[in-house]
Description:
The chain is an alpha+beta fold. It has one domain (4-192): Roll (3-methyladenine DNA Glycosylase, Chain A). It has helices spanning 4-9, 15-18, 22-28, 117-124, 137-144; strands at residues 33-38, 41-54, 81-86, 90-96, 104-115, 160-163, 175-178, 192-195, 210-211. Strands 1, 2, 3, 4, 5, 6, 7, 8 and 9 form a nine-stranded antiparallel sheet that branches. Strand 3 and strand 4 (90-96) form a beta hairpin. The termini are far apart.
Amino acid sequence: MVSTESESIGVPLPRAFYDQPTLAVARSLLGKTLARRTADGVTAGIIVETEGYIAAVDPSAHAYRGRTARNATMFGPAGHAYVYFTYGMHYCLNVVTEAEGVAAAVLIRAIQPRVGIDLMRSRRGERIYHYDLARGPGRLCAAMGLTTADNGTDLLGDSLWISETHGWPAEIPSIAVTSRIGISQAIDWPWRFMLAGNPYVSATGARAPRRLH
């Protein structure tokens, strides 16, 4: 069970939410709240941008060439955090999807900060502009204090979880889909989802964005 403070943000989504096709989860995560608890306090924000990765068919997925110590979490079970270190400087947060044994995950690329903004700024820099606190996967992890020590964390716990967003419309008004960014293979696949026009999205320069609705 999560604490009263956690419940004020929202209770964790059920395991079944993550045990679905990866691209469906990537889309459905938009508008949900990502929350993180540490000894320093709670930070949370609305997910505004995601990308899907499915190792069975995707050469850009970490597990495309098979299971390793680094990518083992990606094989499930669903509803756990897959956190990795990249470029010698950034951590990236993914949520594991689909049935156990299927290496698939959704990268959380950006959030719109709502809770613990002062704490995020203390981690990122006092002069960091509000829009830039968690705009991009590396910034997001820095703002929320996430590292590879959090790899494998159960998203149904009380230290890292995703919930419905209080006061958010049941139907997301406009979602855009584009090709993924920051990769060198399968670069044209439209597996990146975002809230169209949201200023907290990490980048808008990908090819041929189109609205889903």
